Amino acid sequence: MTIDISKCKRCGRAVVPPRDICPYCGPGAGETIHLAVAGEGKVASYTVSYMPPEGFNSPLLLVLVELSEGGMVLCLGDTEDTSHVRIGGAASVYVDREGRYRYTPQASEGHRPE
Ligand SMILES: [Zn+2]
To answer: What per-residue confidence (pLDDT) applies to 48?
Structure first.
């Protein structure tokens, strides 16, 4: 499973979701290239919200993942067990059926609850 990112030809920064204009360089600065990557990286930060926005169950785990290729992705996590989540820990990102970025610890195989 892959996720799509864009990478700026000028500054080399990666952005998720992909964009045609680099947000760091601005319009007219050059092109971006779109890539499909494995979605592997590490946990940059995370939080557990006990008063999430309407439409989300409590507690809500939000994980900020830094991809190996660069770029940060804010992901929804599974809150059944948050003890495995730690800053710097391995992370894997995938897109669920509703198009949302989801976090899963890289270590566990056979993840991706449907
Ligand atoms: Zn750029």
So the answer is: 92
Q: State in Å: Cα 67 to ligand 1 middle.
A: 17
E strands, 11-59, in order: 14-15, 32-37, 40-49
**68 occurs within a structural domain:** yes
Identify the domain containing residue 83 by its residue range. 3-104
We report the CATH number of the domain holding residue 37 as 2.40.50.840
**CB neighbours of 7 closer than 8 A, spacing ≥ 6?**
13, 14, 15, 32, 33, 35, 69, 70
Counting the structural domains of the chain, the total is 1
53 vs 28: CA distance, rounded Å: 37
Q: Does residue 110 lie within any of the structural domains?
A: no
| Protein residues near ligand 1, an ion, with CB under 5 A | 8, 10-11, 22, 24-25
Is 9 inside a domain boundary?
A: yes
pLDDT tens for 36-78 read: 999 999 999 999 999 988 988 888 999 999 999 999 999 999 8
- The structure's pTM equals 0.84
